[in-house]
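Protein Entry — a single chain follows
Fields — amino acid sequence, C-alpha cells
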Amino acid sequence: MRTKYYNHAQEEGSVMIIGGMGLIIAIMIMALLMDMGMYYNSYRRLKAVSDFANEEVTQMLPYYAYSGDYVEAFNRSLDAALDGHGYTSSNVKKSEIDRNTSLNMSWTVIVSTDIILEDEYYCMFASIIGINKIPIRVSAKSRQPMSIGEPYYDGQPYEVWGEDGADP
C-alpha cells in the first residue's frame, strides 16, 4: 500500500495569512499595553503631586488652625505646590479646607482638607480603536486636630484666643 504524502504546494499561503494576522494582533496588544503603562505613569505623577500638596497643607496646619485668612493661605499653598510640578489651577477639580471645633470641650481645632486633581491622558495607539483620551482623577483627604491653649468658638477673632495677637 502506498502512503499518501501531504502536498505543500496546495496550501496557497493560508498559514502565512494566519501568521500575518497573528502578528498584527500581537502588535496591537503591545501598543495597547504601552498606552496603559503610560496612563499609569501619568496617574502616578498626578498622585505624587496630590500627596506633595497634601504634605504642604499638613505642614501649614498650625497656621490654618490659628489664622483668620486660612482659606486664602490654603489656596496659595496649593497653587505653589501645583506650579512646582507643572500643573495649574485648571487641574484642580475641588479644593476645600474646613476648620471646626471639637465637640468634647478639649479646646481642639480640627482642620480637614479635601483636594481632588484631574488631568487627561491622550492615547497614542488606543485612538485606532476610538479611545482618544482617558480621564485621570486623584483625591487626597486629610483631617488633623490641633490643640490650642484656650477655648475657641466659631467666629471668634484670632486676637482673642491667639498667641499675643501674632500668627505662629
The first strand starts at residue 92 and ends at 101. The chain has one domain: 14-154.
